[in-house]
């Protein structure tokens, strides 16, 4: 994978979904690249585990994130970009309906 450039933006978010985002080393390689590039917020919509994983506080030198929070259906999470009001998301709305 080619290296990502360091971003000087106040806030840069990256969202990924699907099973390819979670496969093997791909997830950790991407995460390392994102952290080293200074992407301060990284979400994975994990369809397999039915949760949204939010990674924050990149440790640039270590190529990893200091904080991971998992959100499940029934929970909500907000995204704040710049000086805009937060955008609220319901986790259940981001996931495919569960088979009954």
Q: Can you walk me through this structure?
A:
Strand 2 and strand 3 form a beta hairpin. This protein has helices at residues 24-36, 91-94, and strands at residues 13-17, 41-46, 51-59, 64-71, 76-79, 87-90. Helix content is 17%, strand content 36%. The chain has a four-stranded mixed sheet with strand order 1-2-3-4. Strands 5-6 form a two-stranded antiparallel sheet. The protein is globular and about 40 Å long. The protein has two helices and six strands, in the order βαβββββα. The protein has one domain. The model is unreliable at 1-8 (pLDDT under 50). It starts with 12 loop residues before the first strand and ends in a 6-residue tail after the last helix. By secondary structure, it is α+β, with helices and mostly antiparallel strands.
How much strand content do the residues show? 35-45%
Q: Supply the number of helical segments.
A: 2
Write down how many β-strands occur, each being a DSSP E stretch of 2 or more residues: 6
Structural class: alpha+beta
Mean pLDDT: 77
Question: Span between N and C termini?
Answer: 40 Å
